[in-house]
Amino acid sequence: MPITQEDLTLFFTHSLPFQLKTLNQKYSVRSIEMMPSRDSPLYLEVDGRPLPLFVPLCVDMGITVLRSQRYGYDRIEFIKARTQRLGTGLVSVDIGANVGLYTRQCLSAMPYIARHYLYEPHPGNFEQLEKNLKGQPTVVLNKAGLGPEAGVFTLYLDPDTCGNYSQNAHAVPAGAGSCDVEIRSVLGEQERFLSEGAPILYRSDTRGSDEAIATAFDPAFWRSVAVGSIGLLNVADKAYDVDRFATLLDGFDHRVLASNPGATVSTGDVIRRATDPAWRPTT
């Protein structure tokens, strides 16, 4: 029986995770360049020409983007539904921007966002971030992370995915590599966001430091946040003020978990989700 083009395509698709891992680990290929189609939320232009997308060769992220030409887009749609009513002038703050997939999709889906402040401390991720958001006039890139204190800190690196770098060693596999990165003080940066005089769209995904970052902001900052997305990771040695975190959560009328965005949960539910791996919401 002859091998058809369809057979070859099917084989390539099923073997893609192995191929990406081989390229990354054996041949040190960090990313591949693709051109998203015009109907993809990852499609962008610069100077009237399509802007290439550099996709990391992490199996989870790379496979998803190559197959669907989108990444975590259900959350983008959720945020869009809750920010359209705010009109133009919204300010986006993205802490742990990685290679920019979230912001590329925000630029496509929510052109009414007037400014995007991005923070990414890892040198390799930041290099891809610059390429993926080249020439976007509303984007402000910062090669640094945010934290309660400014300084140079250790970032632990998951060897299998660039989406799992953390300041908490418990968040990555034992024996993972590390590098030193710049962290800026939350209080030293928040005036940049507040000075815009606009509602803020907040997102942080730092794999273990999100509660500590959130509680380092002044209450005035949180009063300006219209919609927020905070990563919750059950990991040891997280140090933050739980009562202060509860207070800022109480300041929002609606709290939902990404696993069930249609159901409102309590502040206590959110904190239990962040601290107890076995906990599940009852609604």
Keywords, separated by commas or semicolons:
24% strand; five-stranded parallel sheet; 10 helices; 283 residues; 15 strands
Structure in a nutshell:
The chain has 283 residues and is of the alpha/beta class. The chain has helices at residues 5-25, 59-68, 73-83, 101-109, 123-132, 186-194, 210-216, 219-224, 242-250, 267-275, and strands at 31-34, 45-46, 49-50, 53-56, 90-95, 113-119, 139-142, 145-147, 151-157, 165-166, 177-185, 200-204, 225-230, 256-257, 260-264.
Number of strands: 15
Spatially, the strands of the biggest sheet line up as: 7-6-5-12-13
**What structural class do the secondary elements suggest?**
alpha/beta
Q: Helicity level, as a percent range?
A: 25-40%
Largest sheet entry: 5 strands, parallel
Mean pLDDT: 90
CA gyration radius, whole angstroms: 19 Å
Number of helices: 10
- Order of H and E elements: HEEEEHHEHEHEEEEEHEHHEHEEH
End-to-end distance, in Å?
Answer: 54 Å
> Could you state the oligomeric state of the chains shown?
single chain
Shape: globular
Strand composition percent: 15-25%
Poorly predicted runs of 5 or more residues: none
Describe it:
There is one protein chain. The chain has 283 residues and is α/β, with parallel strands linked by helices. It is 36% helix and 24% strand. It has ten helices and 15 strands. The strands form five sheets. It has a five-stranded parallel sheet with strand order 7-6-5-12-13, with helices on both faces. Strands 8-11-9-10 form a four-stranded mixed sheet. A two-stranded antiparallel ribbon has the order 1-4. 34% of the residues are buried. The model has no long low-confidence stretch (mean pLDDT 90).
